[in-house]
Amino acid sequence: MAERSQLPPRPRSWLPAWTAFALALLYAAGHDLELSFEDLAYGLDDMIEYFRRYSAPDFAGVPGVLELMLQTLATALWGTMLALLLGGLLAPLAARNLSPGRWTYLVVREVLNLMRAMPDLLLALVFVAALGLGPLPGVLALGVHTAGFMGKFCAESMERVEPGIYEALAATGATLPQRIMYAAWPSVLREAAGYALIILDRNVRMAAVLGLVGAGGIGLALHDTLRLFDYGRSSALILVMLVTIIVIDTLSSSLRRRLG
User: Fold this and answer.
1) Those residues with Cβ within 8 angstroms of residue 78's Cβ, 6 or more apart along the chain or in another chain
2) What pLDDT sits at residue 111?
3) pTM given for the model
């Protein structure tokens, strides 16, 4: 009788070990930050009482509120346009298969990393200190920060383009700008449009937040009402922001599905 063959050993699962490590890491981080869920439970009643103050929105002067919201939308739109311009110019230089040299590729990549690493709020504070209060610091902060994302996304899309497309144009004697214009951008245009919609969607949210540091728009008005403890007016401003963001998000999602 033939001897029964041995089954291979069951593969060892590292999931329990990694789960235990993750839980231990979370506990250590919570202990270091002195997070106390007991304090949260004790303060729950105070939080509920505070949020009840926003239960009676005051929509007096609605035209002024809508004007501020339009200013915020304009700030987000201009910031997105600046991001598209800067990111579009830097993206080909940050693509490994298009950059004219290794050092150009490395330098532009690091410039894009620096743009992404600088938070919007920090940039807005710098530009407000340099230029004063108003929408312009918000436009510059949003544009510089999101240009880093736009440039990175488009550069990686250009690197995924079929090499034969670039080679065919190079064989005809096309220069680098011509390869970028007639091969790179047409190949990634749909993806770039989707990225632009995502950035616009994100910038609408951030434009409202940047107003809290003096970058104009509805966020600046919200900051003033919160300082004066005018909870009814603050509630109305928050609701206008919420409805606008929901509408923008719905339209953006619909357009992205069509592009997809």
Assistant:
1) 135, 139, 143
2) 94
3) 0.80
210/219 Cα distance (integer angstroms): 7
C-alpha to C-alpha distance for 165 and 161, rounded to whole angstroms: 8
What dihedral angle (degrees, nearest 10) is formed by the CA atoms of 93, 96, 102, 105?
30
CA distance 158 to 105: 13
How far is CA 111 from each of CA 45, 77, 108, 151, 155, rounded to the nearest angstrom? 48, 23, 5, 10, 13
With beta carbons less than 8 A apart as the criterion, state whether 110 and 92 touch. Answer: no
DSSP code string of 52-118? HTTSS---TTHHHHHHHHHHHHHHHHHHHHHHHHHHHHHTGGGSTTT-SSHHHHHHHHHHHHHHHHS
The answer, yes or no, to whether residue 139 has pLDDT greater than 70, is yes
User: Closest Cα to residue 72, out of 235, 249, 237?
Assistant: 237
> What whole-number distance in Å separates Cα of residue 126 and Cα of residue 128?
6
* Domains (range + CATH), the chain: 62-259 (1.10.3720.10)
